[in-house]
Amino acid sequence: MNKRVIITGATGMVGKGVLFECLNHKSISEVLVIGRNAVDVDHPKLKQLVHKDFSDFRTVKEQLTGYNGCFYCLGISAAGLNEDQYRKITYDYTLALAKVLLELNPGMTFNYVSGQGTDSSEQGRVMWARVKGKTENDILNLGFKQAFAIRPGMIIPLKGIKSRTKSYQFMYDYFMWLVKLIKALSPNSVVNTTQIGLAMINSMDKGYAKKVLRPKDIIILSEK
Length: 224
Description:
This protein is an alpha/beta fold. The chain contains six helices and nine strands; from the N terminus they run βαβββαβαββαβαβα. It has helices spanning 13-24, 83-104, 127-140, 166-185, 193-206, 215-222, and strands at 3-8, 28-35, 46-50, 69-72, 109-113, 146-150, 154-156, 190-192, 212-213. The strands form two sheets. A seven-stranded parallel β-sheet has the order 3-2-1-4-5-6-9, sandwiched between helices. A two-stranded parallel sheet has the order 7-8. The longest helix is centred in the middle third of the chain and has 22 residues, at 83-104. It starts with a strand and ends with a helix.
């Protein structure tokens, strides 16, 4: 089917999981990873664009044409950041890329990895939830042919993937038994990195009735 996709955040747990699924999927012919640093992956489908300034993608726009999907997995913890700092990375960077991609590829599917607890009203007391809520809302209303906000919640990393967030990796190292127990008791409350990747790939051709995808929706879409 020769789909060409862009991935950001490919050095992180979710982004790397999405990258692995895209490289292994028969419908994907090319994967362009955009990051400040190159990923340590070698594959014939993989292209890399090292770009230091995520506030401005106009300088590299000639390299961003002809893509069918963007899987935006770049994210950061709000711990230790004030609202302006967190907003710059979470909102400004996301919209900077999205607006350039919309101009170049209006038929593109844009998937934004958000999080459980995001505040769609943008009015709540929790800073990170407000910022992510505005990011979701503006991406969904920007004008792409299709756009989805991915809220995975609890994630099981597969294929040797590690989290770059030390507190998360500590949990996976010592409390994976608890995550698996939660999954066994409530199968639709926990997803894995493979399911997130497959759901994003399937979103391009098969779409989905909802724009905000929670764990159950991710599982359903991954199996389409």
